[in-house]
Records
---
Amino acid sequence: PLNKDLNAHIKTHSGLKPYQCNQCDKAFYQKNGLQMHERTHTGEKPFQCSHCNMGFSQNHILRTHLRIHTGEKPFKCKVCDKAFSRTESLQEHLIAHTGEKPYQCEHCDKSFTLSRVLKRHMRIHTGEKPYQCSQCGKAFSEKFLLIKHLMIHSGEK
């Protein structure tokens, strides 16, 4: 197995990506990378949360999701000690310490540090609710609200 792992690692330095998706032409160094990617096209979600029954295409995404239920927040801000469950959330938070808010709402006087936060804010003005419960049809403006709602169906508090 060690030799196999080493050979697979060496391939990543060659620049060759011999495993190509036949749906979108995205290419990968390793076969398992292609197999995981193909789940984006098939919708296959073999990793299921035991708390809320949500499915995930990859095990590491499930492990990150589980932090919602456990409350684990292993990533800590060195400036203010605020803790986060995802490293990406910490990185976004660090922008807040600069005070810069370059994304301005054209409907009100609010401005934001991230473009995606402005986009989410715009739903207040548009009334858009893109996240729909597959069990009862109720729609939500934010993904976390849908996730919280799904806990009602699973019996979790």
---
Amino acid sequence: MSDLIYWFKHKLLNLPVLASEHGKSVDDLIVYVHALMAVLFVGWFAYFLYALFRFRKSKHPNADYIGVKSHVSNYLEGGVALVEAILLIGFAVPLWAKVAAYPPAEKDSTSIYVLGRQFNWNGHYAGPDGKMGKQDSALSSAIDPFGVDRKNDPDAKDDVIVQDNFIVPVNKPVILHISSLDVIHSFAIRSMRICQDATPGFSVATWFTPTKAGKYKIACAQLCGMGHYTMRAVLEVVSQQEYDKWLADAARKATAASVSYE
């Protein structure tokens, strides 16, 4: 049975490798919906063929303006509606509550501010001190679209800015605060089963817990201009030790750069 489910998910539906904690619930819902659609297709197509034969012209040369008097079709439609209600209430609503309604605590998570910009993805990490520095749009630049105020805010000295290369630790919740600098983008990591619109003027949070180390593709899932196809990035999931080392090294470089700038 597991082999059949694997074939259905990854061969027939072409779902990418699963690498997040909540992703199985998403995949299960996709399988249930497609299974229901398959049953509906077979059932209604069989009924369509039956209707073509049953009400063929040679058998019924004259039109019948009264139609079928049986209530079987009503029962079938009611059954379909019941199954859809079960899918919605029993699976979709709990999944949405799990994914969108109960965020992990910031103190127990890796928090990243994500900013979409034609045509790249930018990230703002708090440094090893765990304190996110202030952002000022007046300080925004090509290398720092967030405008992190390193000069006036002590918490911002060791903050890290990345572009198109995000690094997070495995088995630890990740909270993404997603926004856009110009047009509407959509931050999508298929292997993590997340996709969130990035809208100018709004910051929307989404979260996931990566369960497998490796590199995963980040894409823009919203047509955003002529260079939309180039708006790709990488999410690298590493061990906590590797993440801490990377963050310390990146923060040291950022601090040195801010001192040099001053």
---
Amino acid sequence: MSALPAKIAGVNEVIMVTPPQVDGINPAVLAAAKIAGVDAIYQVGGAQAIAALAYGTESIPAVDKIIGPGNIFVATAKKQVFGRVAIDMVAGPSEIGILADDSADPRQLAADLLSQAEHDRRARPILITDSADLAQAVSDNVTSQLKVLPREAIATDAVNEKGFIAVVAKVEEMFDLMNTVAPEHLEVQLKNPTQYLNLIKNAGSVFLGRYASEPLGDYVAGPNHILPTSGTARFSSPLGVYDFVKRTSFIQYTKDALAKEAPAITTLARVEGLEGHARAIESRFDTYYD
């Protein structure tokens, strides 16, 4: 998710950090890094990995930009080093918001909510519906499905502490409320989900219909899955090639072209009290005085 857009953008060197395990790095992670074109891998994770990438160590070079989600400690560390290095966004913990009507399957909705709840105790599973019966059925299914999850304790904490189900009067209110939440992942499980695209304002990634379950986006769907969280989808976008591209302005004027603009420039400069600015322009012409 991080390396491929960087490589497409032309980044010369991509460094990956991954938490050390007892028996080394997971072979699947190594294989994925090789396929994605990662140039170097360091066995370090957490906030200390962010510090190492930002400031450099004897063995880890400092980088220009740090990309990728993490737990609350990683997110906080990225905030702390922003300015010394660039960051993509403050991503995490995971969120899922589901909009559903009575055409949706409560068993599937519960499973999708728990797919994100199992990530982190601070994960945020949310359902908004216009059907009280559906809301109750989903709640019952969440309770029963939690019991069979290997990460039951984590998912239970997320559901109890961060999750909620809201019942509203009509579909438009569902979208209004969810746009306020601005979730990382938004599932639209309505009878005709594409009918409401114009009502979606704030979401990191949108999944339409019952067969677009959120884990589809985690693994194979295609759009990048490093997404804005914590309401930042109001002003942020998913990671993309554009996050690895910067722009520079180039300006060149002839003497005649500058002469046409000089009166405006010198007038504005003096209005601001910046005499040096005005004189810099006048130095190109006979109006400059020592």
